[in-house]
Amino acid sequence: MFLAFQNLRKQKRHYFSFALMLFLTAVIVNLSLVLSFQTSKAYDQNFNRLKTAQLNVLIPQKQDSKDLLKEIDKIQGVTLVERHQGIFTKAKVHHFAGTDFEMTTVFYDSSQKRNLNRFELSKSSKVASQSVYIPNYISKLGGFPLGSKIRYTIGKKDYTYSVAGTVEEMQYGNYGTNVIGIYLPHNAYQSLFKEEEAHSVAEYSLKVSSSSDLSVVKKKLTSLLSDKGIAAVLIKDSKTVKQARTMMSTLLIAIFIAVAGIVFIISLFLSAFRIQNHLKSEVVNMGVLKAMGYTSAKIIFSEVLPYLLVAMIATVTGVLTSYLVLPFLASFLAVQSGFSFQPTFDSYALCLIVVFVTGVAGGLTYLCARKIHRFNPIDAVRRTDSTRRFSNHFSLANSKLGISGALILKQVFASFWQNMLLFVLTVGLMMLLAFSGTLLYNTAGKPDNFLRTLSEELPSAIFTVDKPQELQNIKKELKSDSRVKQVLDYSTQSVNGPDGGLTAFVTPDFSKLTNDIIYKGRNPSTSDEVAIGSALAHHYKIGDWIRLDNNSRFHTYKITGYIQSVNNQGQVCELTAAGYHQIAETRQNHLNVYLKKGVSTKHFIRDYKANYSNSSLKTTNYDQVIKTGSRLYTRVIAVVLGVVFILSLFMISLVLFVVINSLITRRKQELGIYKALGWSDRQLIFQLIFGFIPVIILAAFLSILLAIPLIPLLNQEVLGLVGVYKNHFQVSLGVLFLLALAFVGLNFAISLFLSRSIKTIVPYSLLTE
User: Fold this and answer.
1) pLDDT higher at 88 or 388
2) Count of H helices and E strands in the chain?
3) Do 703 and 426 touch, CB atoms closer than 8 A?
4) Strand ranges, E, within 608-689
5) What b/e string do you get for 506-516 counting C-beta neighbours within 10 Å, with b at 16 or more?
6) What are the backbone angles phi and psi of residue 542, rounded to the nearest 5°?
7) Which residues, other chains included, contact 648 with Cβ-Cβ below 8 Å and sequence gap of 6+?
8) How far is CA 407 from CA 19, 182, 354, 534, 748, in A?
C-alpha cells in the first residue's frame, strides 16, 4: 500500500493526464446514457400526469351526432371518452423565426372542462380581451415571448392576439405531427368561432386500457366512423405521436451515443498506451524493488492500485460534472420535443460507467505490469530482456539515407507498438471527424440531402384552387410561364387502411416527382396499385393485396413497393389519381409548382395573387417553409457538431501530449547526448516529430478509404432510429480530404508546440544526475 501511494505522489503529472482523459470520457458517456435512459421515461411520465388520451380523432362538426359518444364508449378496450369542440384549419403564423409559417392548427376553448388531454400553464400574464396561450415550442422557436403579439392568417382574414401564457400539453406539443394546438380564452374563442364556424370540428379523445392493443382499438374506431359515413379529418394515436415528437431528440441522442462510443474506444487505446509507457519508464525502479526482496505480486499491486484509484475518482467526478451540463441539454431537447423535464441522478448509469472504466483501467495495468514476473533484477536495472534477441537493422555507418534519415527510421521501428497504437487512435479520431463532417456537410452544405431524407416532395410553392375551371386556367398559365420548371397535380389525402387512418400521396404520374421515397419495389402506375408505408411493410409483402376505404367506398389494391415518411411515422401510402378516385369523388385541387434556379418564390407568388385576386387561389411559399424548418434543424445539429469538433481537438492534443511527453521522458539521456554532440534543438524536435508524424499521415489518408464504406452505414444506423430507410446523405471525398489535411496540419502544429520542452534538456545536468 505504501509503495502504491509513493508511486501516486511521485508521478502526479502522469496520473493527472490519465485522470483528465477518463474524466472527459465519463462526462460524454454519462450524458449520452442519462439522456437515453430518461428522455423517453420523462415523456411517458408527463403523458400520464396530464392524463393524455391514447387516441384522438377530429371529425367535421356537421357530421357529429349525440349518439356517437356512447357508440365510441362501447368499443372494447376504451375506458373513457371525452368530447371537445375546436376549430381545425390551416393558419399562417407571421414572423415565426423570421418568416411566415403556415401550420395546420386546432384552436381550443381553454375554459372547456377537461378530464383528458389536460394542459398546464408554465408561464402566464394578465389576460387581455384578445389573448392566446401558445405551446412552448412556438414561443421559444418562433420567438414569441410573454406579452408579445402573434398574428394568424386564416384564409384572407387576420387575427392578432397577445401572448398571455405558454402551455405544456402532451397531445400535440410540437409540429412533428404536422398539427399544433392553440388555446384561446372563452371570449376570444367565441369570437373566432363566429368567423370560422365552417372549420369547426368535434374532437373525441379516447383512453385505452393497458391490456388492449392500441392498433386494434384504432381500427375499430375508424371502422365505426366509416360505417356511419363520417370522414375523419385527423386521427392520431399516442405511439406515432411520440415517435414524431421525439424524432429530433432521438436523432441528437443517437449522435451523442455514436460520438460517446468512438470517444470511449479512443480513450481505451490511449489508456493502454499511457499505462504501457509509464511502466516502461518505471522498469528500473521495479527491478530495484525486486532486488530488495519485494515479490512480483506486491510490485504489480503497487502499480495497479494507483490506476484503480485515479480511474475511480476521475470517473465519478466526470459523471457528477456532467449533471451541470445535463439541464441545458435536456432543455434544448425538450424544446424540440415540446415537453420539459429535469434529468435526475441516475445511479445505474454511474455504476455502469465506474465499474466498466475502472475495471478496464485495472485490467490494462495488470496486463502491462505482469511482465515483471519474468524480469530478473539485473535485466530490469539494465532495461534489457535476456530472453529476447535484438538486431541492428539500420546501421548508422552504412546508411544511404544519412544520419538523420537512419535515426528517424530507427525511431519509427524502435517504437513499433507505440506507432501501431497511434495509428489506431488516428483512425478513430478521423472516423469521429468524418462522421461529424459528413453530417454537417449534408445539413448545412447540402441541406437538400437532409430535407429529402426526412421529407416527401419539396416544391417551391403550392397552389390550391377550389374551382375546377380556375384550376385549369392557372395550371395552363403556370406551364407557359418561363420561370416555372415543372407543375404537378399532387395532393395529400386521408384514407383508411386495415389498421386505421393513412395519409395518401396522390398524383397522376409518380415518375415526375423530384424526391422518390420508395425504398423497396416501385411506385404505383395503375388505378389498382398502391405503395405502402414502412408501418405496414412488416405485415404485407410486395405483391399482396390490401383494402383501402374512404367514406364507405372501398377498393382492393396490389402492393408494388414500400415508401418512407418520417413525418407520418410510416403510416402512408401512394396512389395514382385514378387509383384514389376508386374510393373518393374528391377532385384534386392542389398544384406543386417547381421554379427554376434563381427565381424568387416570394415575388412569383405575389404576381399570381395579384393576377388572380378575385379567384379561389390560395398559395403556400413552401420554399420558405423548407428554409425555416431546415434552419431550425441545421442550427441544432451545427451546435452539437461544433461541440464534437472541439472535443476532437482536445482529444488530438491529449493524444499528442501523452505520446510526446513519453518519448521525451524515455529518450531524455539520448537527446542530451545528441545535444552534447552538437545537434540543435530544431534538429532534435523535427527528428522526434518525424518519428511518428508519418504514421499519422498514413493513418489519416487510409481513414478516407475506410470512411467511404463505413460512414454511410453509421449514418443509416443513426437515421434509422427515426424511421429512415433510404437516406440521401453523400460522403464527399473533398470534405474527407480537407479533414485529413486539417488533421495532419493540426497534429504537426500541436507537436511542434509540445516538443519545445526539448530546449530545457541540458547535457551537463544529465551528467550530474
Assistant:
1) 88
2) 25, 21
3) yes
4) 618-620
5) bbeebeebeee
6) -65, 130
7) 429, 432, 433, 436
8) 34, 74, 43, 62, 19
C-alpha cell of residue 63: 357530421
Helix axes of 247-281 and 347-369: crossing angle, nearest 10 degrees = 30
Rounded CA separation 189/109 (Å): 6
Rounding to the nearest 10 degrees, give the CA dihedral for residues 109, 110, 112, 118.
130
pLDDT at 157 over 60: yes
Name, in order, each residue with C-beta under 8 angstroms of 381's C-beta and a sequence gap of 6 or more.
Answer: 284, 287, 288, 291
- Burial of residue 700, with CB atoms counted within 10 A of its CB: 0-12 exposed, 13-18 middle, 19 or more buried: buried
The whole-angstrom separation of Cα 168 and Cα 146 is 14
Query: 132: buried, middle or exposed (CB in 10 Å: 19+, 13-18, 0-12)?
Result: buried
What one-character DSSP code corresponds to residue 581? T
Q: Which helix (H) or strand (E) holds 289?
A: helix 283-291
Instruction: Report how far Cα 62 is from the mean position of its chain's Cα atoms.
Output: 43
Residues 701-721: tens digit of each pLDDT:
999 999 999 999 988 888 887
Give yes or no for a contact between 302 and 4, defined as CB atoms under 8 angstroms apart.
yes
What is the residue whose three cell numbers read 551528467?
767
Cα 540 to its chain centre, rounded Å, is 30
Instruction: Look at 73 and 338; give whichever has higher pLDDT.
Output: 73
CA distance 81 to 176: 25
Sign of the CA dihedral running 107, 111, 113, 119: positive
Which pLDDT value is given to residue 190?
Answer: 92
Let me know if 580 is exposed, middle or buried by CB neighbors in 10 A (0-12, 13-18, 19+): buried
**Helix or strand or coil: residue 388?**
coil
The gap from C-alpha 666 to its chain's centroid, in whole angstroms, comes to 43
| Residues 279-315 pLDDT 10s | 666 667 777 777 777 777 777 777 778 888 888 998 9
d(CA 457, CA 296): 70
> What are the C-alpha distances in Å from 31 to residues 440, 699, 734?
21, 30, 32
Contact in structure between 750 and 664 (CB atoms under 8 Å): no
Contacts of 31 by beta carbon, 8 Å cutoff, 6+ apart: 256, 260, 322, 325, 326, 329
Contact by Cβ (8 Å): 700, 426: yes
DSSP label at residue 639: H
Residue 574: in which H helix or E strand, if any? strand 572-576
**Cβ count near 385 (within 10 Å):** 15
Residue 409 has pLDDT above 70, yes or no: no
| Burial category of 325 from C-beta neighbours within 10 Å (exposed 0-12, middle 13-18, buried 19 and up) | middle
- Distances in Å between the alpha carbon of 75 and those of 212, 218, 552, 618? 11, 10, 19, 40
Strand segments (E) across 209-248: 234-237
User: Residue 285: how many CB atoms within 10 A of its CB?
Assistant: 16
Please give the Cα distance from 259 to 435 (Å, whole number): 9
